[in-house]
Amino acid sequence: MTDTHRILSLIDEIHNTLIWMKTSGCRGFEKRPPCATNSADTDETPETLPLSRPPLLNSPDDTPAMSLYPQDSIDAIQRDIANCQRCKLAKTRTNIVLGDGAPSAQLMFIGEAPGFDEDQQGKPFVGRAGQLLTRIIQAMGLTRDQVYIGNVIKCRPPGNRNPEPDEISACAPFLNRQIAVIQPEFICALGTFAAQTLLHTTTPISKLRGQFHDHDGIQLMPTFHPSYLLRNPEKKREVWEDIKLLMNAMGLEWPPLSK
Ligand code: SF4
After folding, report:
1. Neighbours of 68 (CB within 10 A)
2. Hey, what's the torsion of the CAs at 159, 91, 167, 6, to 10 degrees?
3. Which tens digits make up the pLDDT trace of 3-42?
4. What distance in Å separates the CA atoms of residue 116 and residue 97, rounded to the nearest whole number?
5. 198 FRET partner, CA 20 to 30 A, in 34, 53, 58, 168?
6. Cβ 66 under 6 angstroms from ligand 1
7. Integer Cα distance of 7 and 10 in angstroms
8. Is 177 in the pocket of ligand 1 (CB under 6 A)?
9. Long-range pairs of 197-200 with CB within 8 A, sequence gap ≥ 24
């Protein structure tokens, strides 16, 4: 991690800590002499200092984020991410693609990163792969407005290359905050990269799919990415098996009732 990333990560941590302190009832800071470090010399109270600080949200051992930032919102994340320069993808992107859909969706689809069309339009899954995802959602008896669609990385890697570790690390706080705000009951991880990143594993998607995994108390179903399906249509049967498991867990009818 470079010095710039360390500083940006520290700023994120301070920002998250201040949000937590505010939501814990803290209304300001004590002004005290610089040498008053002995606990007997201080008068810490819940009004001025939190009893403990919240954990960082980007390591595999983090506790669920749900209750830590109750006043966060998708709009606040949108404001914070505007003109983000936290990683080198800022230099080559056209638009930041945060996500789209219901801010309290029961189901969240998470892919890898924006492609060409998404970068141009600033919306997730709007190209050919996005149209296939839309058909999958409709086949579940839902609309795109009823779910939330996002990506692990919010800016397009040049030439659609795989995101690099420093980019994943720099962008992780935004996805963590999205999940904490939306509080989905289910996540469908689309493709190898999203599934492996969210589950902190290197196990291939072919072995991860077909069963639920735990993601901080959220049931996560990995399946193949729609763009992979476009290249390998024979894999559609396995995706439908995963989607049926998801629908069953969500209490949705299969086949969906016609409206
Ligand atoms: S990929 Fe994420 S961290 Fe990097 S510039 Fe875009 S929004 Fe910022």
Report:
1. 18
2. 160
3. 666 676 677 667 656 655 554 455 565 554 444 444 444 4
4. 11
5. 53
6. no
7. 5
8. no
9. 197/152, 197/168, 198/110, 198/152, 200/60
152 lines ligand 1 (CB under 6 A): no
Is the CB of 208 inside a 6 Å radius of any atom of ligand 1? no
Question: For 203-239, what is each residue's pLDDT tens digit?
Answer: 999 999 999 999 999 999 999 999 999 999 999 999 9
Pair of tokens at residue 180: 């904490």
With CA atoms as reference, report the closest residue to 146 among 182, 98, 95. 182
pLDDT value for 39: 41
Long-range CB contacts for residues 117-126, cutoff 8 Å, separation at least 24: 118/151, 118/156, 119/93, 119/94, 119/95, 119/155, 119/156, 120/94, 120/95, 121/95, 122/94, 122/95, 122/96, 122/97, 123/97, 124/97, 124/99, 124/100, 124/149, 124/150, 124/151, 125/149, 125/226
pTM: 0.76
119 lines ligand 1 (CB under 6 A): no
Which two tokens mark 228?
Answer: 């992979």
Residues 141 and 253: their CA atoms lie apart, in Å, by 8
**Shortest-distance atom of ligand 1 to CA 81:** 7
Å from CA of 1 to ligand 1 middle: 15
Domains of the chain: 72-250 (3.40.470.10)
Is residue 188 over pLDDT 60?
A: yes
pLDDT in tens, 63-118: 334 445 568 999 999 999 999 999 999 999 999 999 999 999 999 999 999 999 99
The helix-helix angle for 74-81 and 165-182 (nearest 10°) equals 160
